[in-house]
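Long-time lurker. I teach an intro course on protein structure, and each term I like to show students one example going from raw sequence to a predicted 3D structure in token notation. This year I'd like something fresh instead of my usual example. Would anyone be willing to generate the tokens for the chain below so I can use it in lecture? Attribution to the forum is fine with me.
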Amino acid sequence: MAAVLTPPAPTPPAGTRFPSRPSWGGWRSRWPLLPLVATVLLPALPHGASGGGGGPAVGPADLASGLAVLVCVGRLLYLRRRPLSAAAALVLGLPAVGFAVATVTAADPAAALPGLVRYLQVFVLVPIAVCLLLRDAHGFRIVAGSLVLLAAVQGVTGVRQYVTGTGASYMGEDIRAVGTFGPSDIMGMATVVAYGLLAAAACALRTPGSAPAWLRACAAVLAVALIVPLALSFSRGVWIATAAAVLVALALTGRRQALTSLAVLGAAGVVVVGGFGIGSEMIADRAASVTRVTSTPDRSVSDRYAMWSAAGAMWREQPAAGVGLKGFPDHRDGHASIGLSSGSDTAGAGQGFRRQALLSPHNMYLLVLSEQGLIGLTALVGSWAAILVGAIRRLRLARSRGHAALDCGLAAVALMTWQSVNFLYADIGGPTTVLSGVVLGLAAWWALAEPDRVSAA
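-- Reply from a regular --
Happy to contribute to a lecture. Here you go:
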């Protein structure tokens, strides 16, 4: 049989260049991420300028998040492509149902409108914008790297406050690390440091060969170093949420790597807190107070229990749709026990003594239950549960296939776990509120994005 000869492929002209990745992967197309990066970094502005405490209700970070949404809308109109898959649209848009019902059924719908705008911004619009503006794993790492940078800046500021005695007042001393957020937002620094710690830890746990060894080593050192300002924040809820997120992330990396990482973290904690004595006595007392919440609780714990009870009483009166968005403060006194104090005392970090009113139950789930009822809670928690389950499922699949973007999955699962646990002890409010939307968006991108976008490492 005669051999069939095929003509050789034509030789490309001299000087022809073949791109190593799709054209959209270059840095020129990364400009839509700038509003997201700005949204992450702008909360680091001094407390008075960022909308916390007595500052303006809308801060620079909120404006940046609005710009990100506008950029997202503009790109969708220009590119004329389907914005989200049906599943992603359902999961991310479901909370809006509860928000709308709670607004319409409120005693004063006009007073509930600001709450509707805020909730839509944080839990619907910003997460959707993050999902649509992230093109691949490189974009995810840029936004996650911004969280690490913010945590490093706030962590250094917080440690300096402890060392120099210029922090917020704690047990009669101005030593509580609060960063640039001030004593009226004592959870702000702890929140951003926890975000950065988890993002850095995810980078350190990247698959060997998928990143330079020096980058993984630097990320590991930074994650361990951020334990110091996290401890000096004296925020018990953040400690619990961070520990839970780290344990979940390590459990999904494999037994051998998990045990090694836990040993390193344990040794680092002993050296930093025990060896150097950095706030060891106060930290130990603060940690022990977690187990004393029923025997001899402090005033903050007693007030929190009273507000939790008030939130439950509001829900029992309006079980379906709640008392309406922004309705908790107006209904608090009618449902709280007489043991509830009029407010909490704040001072230090450049601010004089101030009495801060207790306007929320400091539990996001109970806040939603009291203001939005079972309809709102089911919609919001159902959305978060779908994101978390989807993120874990995709992470396990990526690990079994040796995925190069495994660090993105670890960061997404850790951040979503942290947010879910921390909401047991905190709710939205302050300049870091918009960062909750960014975190939800990162987790949703990993859980719900199209496979080819996630696989681009």
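Some talking points for your students: The CA atoms of residues 108 and 324 lie 8 Å apart. DSSP finds 18 helices and four strands in the chain.
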